[in-house]
């Protein structure tokens, strides 16, 4: 199986005798190469003298791993290759999704916006107690014909973090502005020299075949540890042929929050107002958001308001609580500052998280528990771009909280995994598949796709938005109930940023109200035909939560509505359209 052009620039595998070769075809270990490798996803690993030479035919790459005691993981092969050992975990991806290809300086735009924005930020590293092992460099003498940017970091005071050393490399041909290769290694000890040796072993060849993700549809059993109410509601969700609805305007808060009385009155008033405007429709889902911290203040589960405004179990005529919990201390606003994720990994928030678990258990009723939504973005504190270009941080913190809930005996949470429809950064390493936790930690797939309604030429119907999501999710999550945990259509904001012109444009707010109404009418037309052929994309959608709060931008000290989602008196025709749809 060995080819002469597989050898690395250090000549190690040209001189060493290979002891064996493991061949993987479409993700599975195979005894032989397929007759037509161009029709498959073929990867080979040659072993010699304690090292492993990886040949990735679809990516057209080869590199030598620093040890032979590795377990390859090609489940999400179209996004990344993954190698696990006792000493380190390595993720490798070929990247070619730069959306700025048409612009001058496109590589530098992508690099600074979506790769190194945080890992080179001194304030960010300081605030999160991370230090550099060596200075960041861009070298053209490490690998002939390539530039290599190195980022080597250590998570101080690691606590429970078993692999606190991070070695990251961006490898790009000197004359390329689009394609690059990303290596992200976390290790138990400082592996700077071994990592550099691996990068020096990197070679490219012609690409053969296509990288493929695993061909599998996940099972979705009802957990046996749930209480009877939660089991009954979950079975109802899975089998019902209609969609339950909820509307968000304001979040519940715990009793010690200074805004408790204000929020209590606000939620009640908005609920009564919407019920009237929607023709008497009672919410079946009551959504709320809670952050881990508000500044330095820990936020607790809003027990009193959850019992007052929710308390439903799917059968008692009250709305079921959708509780969105986010690992952020800044409402996902100031990302170049402190993010709680590293301290969660260190174990420093375990007491607070255990109290959250006990409070949710005491609530008793089923909870649609949505943890860290929209993680596959560049605007959340728990996203990969913020957390050392490593979606594993998201997975680790999710699974840590899940273990805490299990240890505390929580028996009423249905865990919602909720990426946003389009992943940013545009990449393979940050695509939402790489964030999926262990399957036992997820029971519901959450969907989110917004129609902002700011530019008529950018209008995308509900049907197109959610057909795309269906095509993306159905191969893996077809057995799951799906909930649109957050979405909406806007009527046109007052100030919108034009990226091509790098300027703000000011226009009348609500100028596209007619399009908003059209979008809502088209949406309910889709649900009307959910059991008919051609409308499979809405069949699994068992819940939907309309997000009725605006996005704002502060420009020259003044706040402008950027995305107009709020269901206020300025969009009464849209509320009437929602009422018509709910009635049918």
Description of the molecule:
- The protein is 26% helix and 26% strand.
- The protein contains 14 helices and 27 strands.
Short description:
The protein has 584 residues and is α/β, with parallel strands linked by helices.
List the helices and strands and how they pair.
Layout: H1 12-15, E1 20-25, E2 28-30, E3 42-48, E4 51-56, E5 61-65, E6 71-73, E7 81-84, E8 88-95, H2 106-114, H3 122-127, E9 130-139, E10 146-155, E11 165-173, E12 180-187, H4 192-200, E13 203-204, H5 228-239, E14 244-248, H6 260-277, E15 285-291, E16 293-294, E17 297-298, H7 303-309, E18 320-326, H8 341-346, H9 350-363, E19 367-371, H10 392-407, E20 413-417, E21 444-446, H11 462-477, E22 482-487, E23 495-498, E24 503-506, H12 513-528, H13 536-539, E25 541-547, E26 551-555, E27 558-563, H14 572-583
Parallel strand pairs: 14-25, 15-18, 18-19, 19-20, 20-21, 21-22, 22-25
Antiparallel strand pairs: 1-2, 1-3, 3-4, 4-5, 5-13, 6-7, 7-8, 8-12, 9-10, 10-11, 11-12, 16-17, 23-24, 26-27
Helix pairs in contact: 12-14
